[in-house]
Amino acid sequence: MINSKFTSCRPYLIRAFYEWLIDNHLTPHLVINIHIPNVLVPLENSWNGQIVLNISPTAVNNLELRNDKILFTACFSGLLKKISIPPISVIAIYARENGEGMVFEQGMEHTIEKSPSLNNYTTPIKENTTLSIIENDYKNQYNMLNDSPDNNDKKTSTEDKNYLGLYLVQ
């Protein structure tokens, strides 16, 4: 049973993964959905509705991982910008070096907050969900080939491979 009086666990998980990544000398990155209200990021650095932000201590200043928003300042194209991100907009937090991290299910928290009638609804556990690291040029489209059992969930791209991306594969 889902209780709408509970606070979101997302900000707590973001803080926990951030601390774990830093403790293990890894570089934490956030993948942000820029279409969520109150996201304040440099849109010129976004692609396909998302932006990836390096939030390591060497990349940002005054980082605050609060329950209601994530705040920091960082340089983009040589200009210092204030960044404000609601935790609901975080798609994933991961380490640049090895992809270790967590992908968050999108939309679940908005559904709970806006539809009290769903409070007794339980979400079935999705089986065979994995996090897949795909290296590719960020301007290319990704081609997920998993229509037949013969290709074993093979992921392919259209051009050279030089960009790290995360996708939730179900």
Set down the secondary structure blueprint:
Blueprint (H helix, E strand, L loop, with lengths): L9 H14 L4 E6 L16 E5 L5 E6 L4 E7 L2 E7 L4 E6 L5 E3 L4 H7 L15 E6 L6 E3 L10 E3 L6 E6 L1
Antiparallel strand pairs: 1-2, 1-6, 3-4, 4-5, 6-7, 8-11, 9-10
Organism: Candidatus Erwinia haradaeae
Protein name: Stringent starvation protein B
Notes on the structure:
The structure is a single chain. With 170 residues, the protein is mainly beta. It has 2 domains: 1-123, Roll (SH3 type barrels); 124-170, no CATH class. The protein is built from 2 helices and 11 strands. It has helices spanning 10-23, 108-114; strands at 28-33, 50-54, 60-65, 70-76, 79-85, 90-95, 101-103, 130-135, 142-144, 155-157, 164-169. The strands form 4 sheets. A 4-stranded antiparallel beta sheet has the order 2-1-6-7. The protein is globular.
CATH architecture of the largest domain: Roll
Query: How many helices?
Result: 2
Using only C-alpha atoms, the radius of gyration works out to: 17 Å
**The biggest beta sheet, please?**
4 strands, antiparallel
Structural class: mainly beta
- Helix proportion: 10-25%
Through-space gap between termini: 24 Å
Assign the CATH topology of the largest domain.
SH3 type barrels
Q: Give the full name of the CATH homologous superfamily of the largest domain.
A: SspB-like
Number of domains: 2
User: What overall geometry do the principal axes of the alpha carbons give?
Assistant: globular
Just give the CATH class of the largest domain: Mainly Beta
